[in-house]
TrEMBL record:
Molecular function terms from GO: 4 iron, 4 sulfur cluster binding; metal ion binding
Pfam families reported in the protein's UniProt record: Fer4_7, Oxidored_q6
Domain of life: Bacteria
Domain 4Fe-4S ferredoxin-type, residue spans: 33-60, 61-90
SUPFAM superfamilies registered for this protein in UniProt: 4Fe-4S ferredoxins (SSF54862), HydA/Nqo6-like (SSF56770)
Keywords associated with the record: 4Fe-4S, Iron, Iron-sulfur, Metal-binding, Ubiquinone
Protein name: NADH ubiquinone oxidoreductase, 20 kDa subunit
Signal peptide: none
Cofactor: [4Fe-4S] cluster
Species annotation: Hydrogenophaga taeniospiralis CCUG 15921
UniProt family annotation: Belongs to the complex I 20 kDa subunit family. Belongs to the FrhG family.
Length: 253
């Protein structure tokens, strides 16, 4: 056996098994996920966490973090003198309600995804999605691509990303929706046959994220179309995407 072949085998062996057998139980090491708000008092007149938040995701009275805005940067945690804020590595951050993404000390859990009986009946065995990057930075788009790789293999559940809206059952929206992409987004949505759904992936798609106040945006599309699923993150982790879709469609896994 050649030295090159031996080296290849050694590298492959060192990598171990890349395939994730049980996506429901997978917990990524080092992932900053759901915010944790301790039931302790803030320091007097302290606004440190709110001041460093780049997307205005934090409100102080009462303390609340909006995961629809939060970019999971974690900058709020080290500046909090009372240790009130933290994050765990929970990837199950999706919600079917925009309001369900708000975390407080009294409401520590994100609203669980509500299974849609209608969507389960129509798409529970096969769902084709068209991705539209509406001015995104390519972070969420790369994570969406990763859902189909050897690690996650979303296609095993009959869920695929397709090239044409004519072949799609729904649209995955990423990016804050710039004016330059607003019409293209509308055209793509109109080309998807009924019945159809929209999935908002990432803080930018959900709220505009760090670009929410930019006059370069045109988010009127979301005034007409309500997403069936909100997937927080910056970018959204593949496991957040997969678990959210599976919960929405009632797929056991």
């Amino acid at each position: 056996m050649s030295p090159t072949m031996l080296k290849t085998i050694a590298v492959r062996r060192s990598q171990g098994t890349q395939y994730i057998a049980d996506l429901r139980r997978a917990v990524p090491a080092g992932f900053r996920g759901k915010p944790l708000i301790a039931d302790t008092a803030c320091a007097d007149s302290c606004q440190a966490c709110q001041s460093v938040c780049p997307s205005r995701a934090i409100e102080l009275v009462p303390m609340r973090i909006d995961l629809g805005r939060c970019v999971l940067c974690g900058d709020c945690e080290p500046v909090c003198p009372s240790g009130k804020l933290g994050f765990n590595n929970d990837v199950k951050l999706a919600s079917t309600r925009r309001e369900g993404l708000v975390v407080t000390a009294a409401r520590a859990h994100i609203d669980p995804v509500q299974v849609s009986a209608a969507l389960h009946q129509r798409f529970g065995r096969s769902l084709k999605l068209r991705s539209v990057s509406a001015g995104g930075c390519n972070g969420c788009e790369m994570e969406l691509n990763a859902t189909g790789n050897v690690n996650f293999d979303l296609g095993r559940y009959g869920i695929d990303i397709v090239a044409s809206p004519r072949h799609a059952d729904g649209l995955v929206l990423t990016g804050p929706i710039t004016r330059n992409m607003a019409q293209a987004l509308e055209i793509c949505w109109d080309a998807i046959p009924e019945p159809k759904l929209v999935i908002a992936m990432g803080a930018c798609a959900i709220s505009g994220g760090v670009f929410a106040d930019s006059d370069a945006l045109d988010r009127s599309f979301l005034e007409k179309v309500t997403p069936s699923l909100y997937l927080p993150g910056c970018p959204t982790h593949p496991l957040t995407f997969i678990s959210g879709i599976m919960d929405l469609l009632g797929i056991a896994g």
